[in-house]
Amino acid sequence: MYRTPEGKDIFVVDGHTHFWDGSPENQKNIHGKQFIECFYAYHTGLSPKDQLWEKSKFEKYSADDLYRDLFIDGPDDVAIVQSTYLKDFYKNGFNTIERNAEVAKRYPERFIVNGAFDPRDGEKALEYIHFLKETYDVKGVKMYTAEWNGASKGWKLTDPDAYKCFELCDKLGIRNIHVHKGPTIIPLSKDAFDVHDVDHAATDFQNLNWIVEHCGLPRLDDFCWIATQETNVYGGLAVALPFIHARPRYFGEVIAELLFWLGPEKILFGSDYAIWTPRWLVDKFWAYQIPQDIAAERGVQLTDEIKEKILGLNAARLYNIDVEAKKKALASTPFSIAAE
Amino acid sequence: MATASVSGSREKELWRRLDEVNDPELDEAITEMGFVERAEVMGDGSAEVDFRLPTYWCSPNFAFLMLDGVRKALDQLSWAPSYRVKLHDHMFAEEVNRGMEAGKTFGDIFAVLAEDQDLGALRETFRMKAFKRRQEAVLRGLRLHGLTDLEILGMDLPAYDVARFEPGEAIKQKPRYRAALLERFPDRRADDPVFVTWEGQPIPPGALGAHLAELRGVRINMEFNGALCRGLKQTRYKELDVVDGEPTLVDFILDRVPARTAPTA
Predict the structure, then answer these.
(1) Can you list the domains of chain B with their CATH numbers?
(2) Where is the Amidohydrolase-related domain (chain A) (predicted)?
(3) Which end of chain B is more exposed for a tag (fewer CB within 10 A), N or C?
(4) Chain B within 8 Å of A49 (Cβ-Cβ)?
């Protein structure tokens, strides 16, 4: 729960968090080393100085660190923890669903654990989706289209194998498809983070919600256009939000575009923990106003009511979280008492 | 000493040439982004350039475009030296370095992975983005200076050349937009309007607001990459700022704080 300086309680769903192990012991090769180093560079590049972590903690933090940073020191009520396997880079995977489910079990009511699958695995991917549903009852999945798999250096949401997987998700009621569409890395001929495949997939799977993480940046214009056309496309603020500290005016331009094109109902808060921690992000977001000239040009405002939607109510809707019931349940868990 | 001054002026020329190479994705000089780690004229007159990008994962086609730019810049050096360009710490460094040395094209180097990659088309896309980003900065600068939309859109090249700006991005982009305009429309007449769309269409005065909104979209994307690259680059090189001369947490993390010497009292 986030308490505003005015004393109002705001329900916070952190739409994008991780519980990873990027430690040297788990790294399979140079790529694994470089991958976590790249994340660490994001962390040091955009965090306020007083929020910086030591590299060794960043590589591997404990379940208690996670819980404390999100829910005790941090304002989150519920966190969606995403699974990213990267088994070509890490011996035991980067943050597998097993690891995530364990921490969710340890702290009940707090986590929504999302699965992940790789459509390039064909039949096995379909079997795995069944397994995810039966074992973990997942409500969502995280798709990482730039992930390597053998000779393949990426895939598209519109690949026939991917469509088979989404058909199955639809059938099993796995409705929230988070898609990582972020900064340009790796692509050779095909840009694995190009956002246009979302357009087709969202049209063809109307029952599924497509949450585009990082709002497709640096392809914000393409993303906005698609999200405006498709009622079931949402934007996740992870990576865009930290700019609120380093480049506040720039963040104003981004959020103004999102509000103008998508409207306040389709933008989701996400810290991308442990790259950034939610405490300072939410503090700064609540205090933030779009610079007047930008707001005037786009004719948008970031009101308290809109902030409340972005911070939690929008994600609660997608994940069928009954906010009042959840507040009651959280109030009665032993951990929240310990946190007082 | 004569040789020292020759090598000094050659080194200046080398950097001047490198200053002209842009990161195509960001439309900013590679030297300004800090991608050139070392550029040196050796005793025998040959040139060596060490190149490093913000991350191991930076898109290899962008890396290649920049290195190709470096290669062309070095070809223009007045004393026509032999040279060596090396990309460091990149996932495809080996392939790129070997290929560059053999004078291969991107398609040759990445024959298997590149598939139908068309670097020509990519270059064209970047030229368009640079044109738009530069134009936006200048248009906003002129508005800030108090010109009406009608005055701005009626401007021809002679008027543009004497136009004044408030200090800031617009001044930096003014000559760069001019260059992009002349490159894009080499046959334009001097009295043609300076501000047209990338397709060469005039912009009606009532539509400047919408036009600027579109240009802003282009800039937001480029700035995102630029800001991210700078942030990542700093971390990679550990060029972290020192606040008020005092070490920060980062310095401690990176073990850059010298052990204190005992006070000599």
Answers:
(1) 2-117 (3.30.300.130), 120-236 (no CATH)
(2) 13-321
(3) C
(4) yes
- Distance, CA of B61 to CA of B125 (rounded, Å): 13
Check if A29 contacts B (Cβ < 8 Å). no
A340 found inside a domain? no
- Whether residue A13 sits in one domain with residue A99: yes
- In terms of Cα–Cα distance, which of A89, A97, A122 is closest to A23? A89
**The domain boundary residue, chosen from A236, A256, A279:** A236
Cα A77 to Cα A282: distance, rounded to the nearest angstrom: 12
A-chain residue closest to B91, CA distance: A31
Whole-angstrom distance, CA of residue B150 vs CA of residue B139: 12
Residue A252 lies in a domain: no
Whether residues A224 and B115 touch (CB distance < 8 A) is answered with no
* Six-digit token string for A151: 């000779």
* Minimal Cβ distance to B57: which of A40, A185, A250: A185
Residues A106 and A138 in one domain: no
Question: Could you tell me how many residues make up chain A?
Answer: 340
Buried b (16+ CB within 10 A) or exposed e, A159-176: eeebbbbbebbeeeebbb
pLDDT at A85 over 80: yes
**C-beta atoms surrounding A76 within 10 Å:** 29
Please tell me the distance from the alpha carbon of residue A130 to that of residue A125, in angstroms, as a whole number.
9
Give tens-digit pLDDT for A187-239: 443 455 678 899 999 999 999 999 999 888 878 888 998 999 999 999 999 98
Cβ atoms of A119 and A161 within 8 Å: the answer is: yes
Longest dimension (CA), chain B: 77
Determine the structural domain holding residue A86 and report its residue range.
Answer: 1-113+265-335
The domain tally of chain A equals: 2
CB neighbourhood size of A265 (10 A): 12
Average pLDDT over residues B75-91: 92
Residue A107 sits in the same domain as residue A10:
yes
Helix or strand or coil: residue B238?
A: coil
Which among B105, B116, B62 has a CA at the least distance from the CA of A190?
Answer: B116
Q: What is the pLDDT of residues A45-57, one digit of tens each?
A: 899 999 999 999 9
Complex-level ipTM: 0.81
Nearest to B79 by CA among B179, B147, B151, B11: B11
pTM above 0.90, yes or no: no
- A256 belongs to a structural domain: no
d(CA A164, CA A31): 30
Minimal Cβ distance to B249: which of A49, A243, A253: A49
Q: What's A217's domain CATH number?
A: 3.20.20.140
